[in-house]
Fold:
Amino acid sequence: MSLIHALKQARPYYYGLLALLIVLDLVWLDAVRDVPLWVIGLVVASGLAAEFLPARSQRRPRAERRENPGEPPAAEVEPPVSGRWRALNSPADKVPSHGTRVYGQSHAIDLVREAEPGERARPGFGWWPVVRRNQDFPAFGEPVLAVADGTVVRVRDGRRDHLSRTSWPALLYFFAEAMVRGCGTPAAVVGNHVVLDLGDGTYALYAHLRRRSAAVREGDRVSAGQRLAGTGNSGNSTEPHLHFQLMDRPDPLEARGIPFHWRGIGVPANGEVFTAPEPGSGGGSGAGESASEGASRENAAATRPATRPATRPATGP
Structure:
């Protein structure tokens, strides 16, 4: 573990200590007056280093940039869901897809489930109601699937599923909440999550999972298409959805993102609706339904080309 990694892991303790010193100074005036300046300076310097020094996930070695100026080749895996979903924050449109490489999410994608014909539609964004129950969203509790054979290396499923942040007032709260979460460990951001070791230095992260929904334990061997957990609304999330990414290490704080390519689907564009087949249905070779965001047509039999380039150039932050 590097010094920067250790400092970033200790951020919650640093902010807690800083808050304690402030409270003590307010309640008992001059309570910290006798603390040596070098101690205060060390605390402040450690906190600044933890906040602003880039983690490994945000850095790319100079030699690596010189030898391979583009992105690494994409790993071809199965889709992590089945059914009808919409892609958001997709690496098909920009890299890093979420505006940052931190936590290995340079090629991450968010998936929200869209209702099947006859089902209640996914709630939209607006002013009212301010918050919604998770059960109002089609994605809540939907199975997330192993994208390949692998080994479970991390399971965290004790964080609560909070109410939605899908209104303008709630979105303001979400931004303030995100700042607080960013001061903690990666688990405060990704919420309940599962990490799979797919071999050859490739790991799959499934984030924002439903509390107590994990169907696997650390050390378990899983097969492609096997249920791992249910989608939820834990961590830094506005509504029930799945955040999926491939990375080169099991710890998001140290990982760098790896491009992915879903068999039979490719990489859905931002806002695109696609249909992933049920595991073992044999419909994985181009059976996806696709549509652009806001389009009214339904292409039930549309076929996504499986020839989408596996490698995408970095487009900058």
In short: The longest strand covers residues 150-156.
